[in-house]
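sanity check both lines:
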Amino acid sequence: MQIIIGMDELIRDSLTGGNPADHIAMANKRRREYLILLDNAKAAAITAVDAYNRVNHPCRNETTLILLTNAWELLAKAVLVQAHLSIRKGQRGDTISAEAAISKLLHRKDLIKHEAETVQQVISLRHAAVHHFLPPIPDEVMQHLLFFGCKFFREVVKRHFKAHSKDLEQNFLSLSFMELTTYADKIKKVVSRVKKNSSDRKLAWLLERGIEFDGTQYLTEKQFSAKYRGKKQVMPYLSINKFLGSTDMVRVVPIQAPRNYTADISLRKGSSRDASLPVLIKKTELEKDYPYLTKELANKVGKNVNFVAKATHALGLKGDPKYHLAIRSSKSSAIQRYSEAAVQHLRSKLVTEPDYNPYKQSAFDSSDQLN
């Protein structure tokens, strides 16, 4: 493989007595090192997903955390080596720890704060799994850390090693028959029990110490307990509380739909005070819940089709699932269906405003948009 050395580097070597041939040899060595690190990192990441998805895996969480930590440590070192930065420590030639490598990526802005905090939680749990034992970890917490750990991993690979990003484009399918909530929901419950339950206290501490890692040392369990000693509530005094407000949530939603049903999932803006991700699934019986076509709705309220079409748009009924459902009939058209609530809403409007004119409202809206 040809390595091209910049003219400024050759001049610098000649001025300092360096040998260009030695420089080329070192460049080749460095390139081989970061590519080997990268290849092993990708293999570890994919195997971590495989480990978590195995059925009846006796050490599922432990294996997943160990492999995912290994993947991130090697990826971080590949980025650092490619940037000509040392990954060595001390005189024995040992390399830096996983948490230190991630801290360096954060310092270089290769990761933003909540991304680094997610990975540091994985590493903290991994250390407990290897050196002691893990407390019980809710499925939602493991799935959150695995999903975003892999998502951020792919993004770093794509930014620094674009030619290798295509190796991580697979879709992974995992079955679930339980109704799961989210990382945020489970963390709040875990933290609410830290004063009473030693397992919950240990899990909260392991996650907190990952988030609070400062590049050199970990938060001790004693220091963690001191944060909330004498306080009625624990959550407001923990860094994990700020983490919940800065990171997205993920939820695995298995949907089993009967024949002739359609599943619609929509994201809505929730309360800024609640980081959970509720998922509401409603089974819709089309003929029962939305029995009226536009013409039938017009007959119900005693108006023509054009009047009703304008009115449902002007009054905000269209697009509101309480009143309206659009069924796509082709790529370019849809069938509009309306509920009984739409009938009652229009009738009420015409009773209170007998002279209501949706055409004027539509014209006003258009003029308002132009201005």
The mean pLDDT is 84. Strands lie at 88-89, 94-95, 292-293, 324-328, 334-338.
